[in-house]
Structures are given as structure tokens and as C-alpha cells.
Amino acid sequence: MALPVPxxxxxxxxxxxxxxDEEVGQANKIMDCDPTFAGSCSLNEPHLLTQGxxxxxVCNLNLSKKQAEPLGSRLKGWNLLRKDTKVCFYRGLHEExxxxxxxxxxxxxxxxxxxxxxxxxxxxxxxxxxxxxxSSKVRLKVVLLHEGNxxx
Length: 152
Prior knowledge:
The protein has four helices and four strands; from the N terminus they run αααββαββ. It is α+β, with helices and mostly antiparallel strands. The chain has a two-stranded antiparallel sheet with strand order 1-2. Strands 3-4 form a two-stranded antiparallel sheet.
């Protein structure tokens, strides 16, 4: 179904009784000095990004670790990040668990499930846990699934 194209009015005329430049200037001054107006940000101060802001940007842009770190570094160089924002917070998340995995003949495997469970604060019962692995050329993802899905 096609909608009709609107036609411009034919009887519009400019009024000679328009506001003068002086009146417009006074109205703008009154609006600028409105004591009840509270702006949410100052034009003189930049909005510094927090760690959460940076995380959200990286997630929303679907950036890899290699792409996210230069972005964070550039933002920090431009003084757009708060002082407590970490740029390399993506590194080192695997350090705590890397000793529990081995690689032989191109195959990566967990060599000490009991110790991993101990670090995670759970008791390991092989009848209640399943190890799910997903690999690519870049990374290996491992997820421990609990039977009954009681532990997220």
C-alpha cells in the first residue's frame, strides 16, 4: 500500500511583524541564565570513561583482545580514561589455570581436574560434572557443566 506524497501549502506568507535581532538576543540571554536549569554535563570538562564504560565499548564493538588493547591505550593517551581504568585488564585471566592444562601432539587437555575444582571452590565428583571444550585456531574454551545446572 503506497502512501500519498504530501504537498506543501500554497498560501504561506512571511509576516512583517517578526522578532528583531535584539529581541532574539534578549530571549537567548534569559534562557542561558535560567536558574532552574541543571545540565547533566559541563562543556568544559570531558566525560572520562570508567572501567565499565571501556568494557561495554569493547563488548559492543565485538573487539578481540588484540583490538581492545590499542583502543584502551589510545583513549588513555588522549586522557579520556579515569586514572583507575586499566588498559591491559584482558591479559592474565588464564594464568591461574594454565598449569592444569597440557598439550601433546597438538591436543590440549586438562591434566588435573581436581585441582581446578579446588581453585573454583567446589568438590569434584566425576558423576556430577561434565567437561565441555570448544576450540579454534586462536583459543581453547573449557566449561565445566554441573549435572542439574545448580552451579552457574
